[in-house]
């Protein structure tokens, strides 16, 4: 029997002995490479994909006050997670309806926004939507909802909202 760093044979692969725990060398090397690649991050999950529904009507934009973390108490666009098998445009329509009761038609995709923090990473796709019907009513995971002119926005705002609003109301939606 060999002694030293590697000891024994486990189904044809060498095993690493650490005290009483035995793991294959391959798994140990993969974890070591992951740690080196990810730095000190403790989460190895891939980023989540979410949507933001950007709806302008009569020179005003619809905003909601978030009830849940990570941006609880802040004002932002209606939106949320893209479900498996769901298109980004369909997710924006669904989230807008669930959070505000507004019906809108997706018009265009805007520049992607990333939200990163301790233990979380989201890739958010803002979807420009043309208002069709409805009045904003808080539902689902929001406390308040309403139409706001760009020069009188509520505070505090969600991170990244100002960059999306900077483009202003599009001409295609009739705002």
From TrEMBL:
<dbReference type="InterPro" id="IPR020084">
    <property type="entry name" value="NUDIX_hydrolase_CS"/>
</dbReference>
<feature type="domain" description="Nudix hydrolase">
    <location>
        <begin position="46"/>
        <end position="170"/>
    </location>
</feature>
<dbReference type="GO" id="GO:0016787">
    <property type="term" value="F:hydrolase activity"/>
</dbReference>
<dbReference type="InterPro" id="IPR015797">
    <property type="entry name" value="NUDIX_hydrolase-like_dom_sf"/>
</dbReference>
<comment type="similarity">
    <text>Belongs to the Nudix hydrolase family.</text>
</comment>
<dbReference type="Pfam" id="PF00293">
    <property type="entry name" value="NUDIX"/>
</dbReference>
<keyword id="KW-0378">Hydrolase</keyword>
<dbReference type="InterPro" id="IPR000086">
    <property type="entry name" value="NUDIX_hydrolase_dom"/>
</dbReference>
<protein>
    <submittedName>
        <fullName>Hydrolase, NUDIX family, putative</fullName>
    </submittedName>
</protein>
<dbReference type="InterPro" id="IPR020476">
    <property type="entry name" value="Nudix_hydrolase"/>
</dbReference>
């Amino acid at each position: 029997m060999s002694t030293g760093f590697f000891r024994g044979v486990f189904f044809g692969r060498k095993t690493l002995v650490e005290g009483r725990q035995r793991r294959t060398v391959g798994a140990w090397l993969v974890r070591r490479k992951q740690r080196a690649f990810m730095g000190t991050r403790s989460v190895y999950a891939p980023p989540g994909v979410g949507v933001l529904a950007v709806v302008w009507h009569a020179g005003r934009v619809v905003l909601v006050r978030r009830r849940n973390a990570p941006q609880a108490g802040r004002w932002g666009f209606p939106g949320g997670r893209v479900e498996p098998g769901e298109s980004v445009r369909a997710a924006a329509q669904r989230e807008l309806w669930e959070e505000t009761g507004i019906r809108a038609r997706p018009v265009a995709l805007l520049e992607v926004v990333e939200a990163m923090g301790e233990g979380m990473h989201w890739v958010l796709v803002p979807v420009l939507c043309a208002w069709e019907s409805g009045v904003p009513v808080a539902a689902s995971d929001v406390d308040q909802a309403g139409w706001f002119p760009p020069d009188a926005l509520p505070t505090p705002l969600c991170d990244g909202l100002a960059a999306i609003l900077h483009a202003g109301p599009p001409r295609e939606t009739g705002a």
